[in-house]
Amino acid sequence: MKSDTSTATTITPFINGSRLMDRHRAMAEIGATANGGVNRQALTSEDTRGRQLLLDWAAKRSYAVSIDPIGNLFIRRPGLRPDLSPVMTGSHLDSQPTGGRFDGVFGVLAGFEVLETLDDHGVTTERPMELVVWMNEEGSRFPPPTMGAAVASGAIPLERALATLDRNGVNVGDALAAQIGELPRLETRPLGAKGFAYIEAHIEQGPVLEEANCAIGIVSAIQGLHAYQVEVRGVEAHAGTTPLRHRKDALVAATTLITRIRSEIADPLDVLRFTVGRFEVAPGASSTVPGKVTFIIDLRHPDPRHLVQTGERILQLCSGEVENCSVSAKVLLRSAPVKFDEQVVAAVREATERRKYESRTMISGATHDAKYMAEHTPTAMIFVPCEKGVSHNEAENARDEDLAAGAQILCDAMLAVMSGKQ
Amino acid sequence: MKSDTSTATTITPFINGSRLMDRHRAMAEIGATANGGVNRQALTSEDTRGRQLLLDWAAKRSYAVSIDPIGNLFIRRPGLRPDLSPVMTGSHLDSQPTGGRFDGVFGVLAGFEVLETLDDHGVTTERPMELVVWMNEEGSRFPPPTMGAAVASGAIPLERALATLDRNGVNVGDALAAQIGELPRLETRPLGAKGFAYIEAHIEQGPVLEEANCAIGIVSAIQGLHAYQVEVRGVEAHAGTTPLRHRKDALVAATTLITRIRSEIADPLDVLRFTVGRFEVAPGASSTVPGKVTFIIDLRHPDPRHLVQTGERILQLCSGEVENCSVSAKVLLRSAPVKFDEQVVAAVREATERRKYESRTMISGATHDAKYMAEHTPTAMIFVPCEKGVSHNEAENARDEDLAAGAQILCDAMLAVMSGKQ
Q1: Does the complex come out with an ipTM higher than 0.85?
Q2: Per-residue pLDDT tens over the stretch B42-76
Q3: Stretch (H or E) spanning A315
Q4: In chain B, helix, strand, coil percent, each to 5?
Q5: Which of A126, A381, A415, B391 stands 20 to 30 A from A78 (CA)?
Q6: What are the Cα distances from residue B21, in Å, to A194, B16, B47, B117, B402?
Q7: Which of A142, A229, A242, A307 is most worth mutating to test chain B (most B CB atoms within 10 A of its CB)?
């Protein structure tokens, strides 16, 4: 990012923390679960209602809204010079099936709060300010995660993403068309979301900031993520009549395989993250020996070499025969670790220091939409602590003052980037 | 069973093997899968269509049909003395999700062939002959298996069975009402299906008869079956941010638990059958550490003491903590081994000897509706071989001549029982 010659104001107004909390409460009602979380998976009717609510708020401010072919939603506050690329922020409104009230939502509502704060204080900016609601960040209904951002940056072809099926055989293209049919008429825009800069606010989803008693995490990088889909094929058989020595039991083979992988790649430093979160057994009848198991391995590490080596070892282990069953694996996603832009990271750090918040510079354990923006736009992220580091869980929680601090730093840093002070 | 003073004919007519094959082919088209099997799970529209087809055939013969409150279907060929209890046969038309063309179907169609054969040869009998199509023998949509027969014998309360939910939250009562709405108006009859005798024909679903080159299995008993539902509770967490040492991963705990159980109960004689066929992971998202796993253990053994002891050991292992997760288990089903009636078994054996079929007396590894009939009605079963013993599998297959032999022995044995010759 080159320094900007913008004449934008250097005022850094205070954001409205109670409005930000009201917006969080209103959004948390959409898809609310009995246990205090939300289930607002991508392109469901709950997701549509969440987007509708945000569009209602945007309409009151007369912001221009548009949507791209993969369903990313753009809300723009105009600048004095519409020819200049925007300073951007964003995150997602879709959730895990048993998700929390802040994951993604905070970044969207903090970004919207920045736009409204500038309105309230009569701040004009040279460049437009743009808030993006990325489509399907979670990937729990339609794998993989960060689909909308990945398509916008060209990392996943649009056609492949649109053809992705959910468990009921519905594809992204049809679900998206249904959502668009429910929303007010939106201007369409082509794929590609380059900006002058991009800053995303998010809850940490880990325990570091809370344990260190910090309000702000200055995020300098995102660790790498590989996802592998493993298929174990056995032979279906009758549970009452088939001797164990004759069986090709795909569940037995899959449990042996997972135990073997965990033991072989064990990391004494506990930096490597290995998770099997999706695991499906077919035909799934209690009196039938399973003929097929498919599962997804989610593997993460900040060091690209370590990640690649571990991924290769997993692919070796997931081939050939295990307990008389055949095993194969394919790569779903190979996302290398990403380093953020030094100048934008510095803008976040300086804003944090000016506001005198306790902070910590850190690597993100989770992946985020910002990963794809970083490929073409100077990018950074701001983290705020969440209770006990719990996320992807209905019990997810964050303190009002931390959320307000995060939105404030987002506002300050976006203005600082705009005016080229970093 | 007391000896019958019936005056029924002693003619044992030949069944019509090609008609029996035609009926099998017609039934196999309903719910046919791409791989040559069937998916005709209980109370689905496929199951309804299967029952409809049988009712169409019964209507052509003017047999009386009726249905009981749990959906068991009765097709009756009248006898000279309607006051006498019927000689019964039956099996089921519902299948596994990826089931075969003969499991259950053979017993229903062989029974129907017996009724038609008697018509064709003008045979009158003292007692009525009754064919039962048991509701939900497989239990793959609505656990447990043999639901209809268990309710008819009083082993499961009707209300509990009707309230059983499938994966989509539909209960048996509503699904049954929907099926009855689709079928022609049927006479209703109360629960309870006592008969003078009951003989069920079925494919073996194991390799014994084929290996021994026998056409007929004379089934003297059914091994016992216990089913346990196990729940493993952990804590959902983010796959990218949560160190492994902080996790309570329900999938890791479940795989460890299953490995431990298999090792502890291992049977060097390979008589014990231990199967986990249904295994569900929640929330099932690739980037979320699983918070809950539920699975069903299907456990079988011919020796009641061995079965009970192994079941108790499993319940001990499925309690307390495993890999930081809490584990609990409940009993879904405890069905002791069942010995069949000596006189009815003898009738099957004598019919087999008269027809000069190679045969073998054996214990059934699978459970069957006959298990519940045996509680109140003198009962036996007839097995025919199936290819390589494969069942609960779309590749399930059986030879025309073996199926015809089984139907012939069923016809002969039902008449023999009727006339009190055994």
Answers
A1: no
A2: 999 999 999 999 999 999 999 999 999 999 999 99
A3: helix A304-317
A4: 35, 25, 40
A5: A381
A6: 68, 9, 20, 14, 11
A7: A242
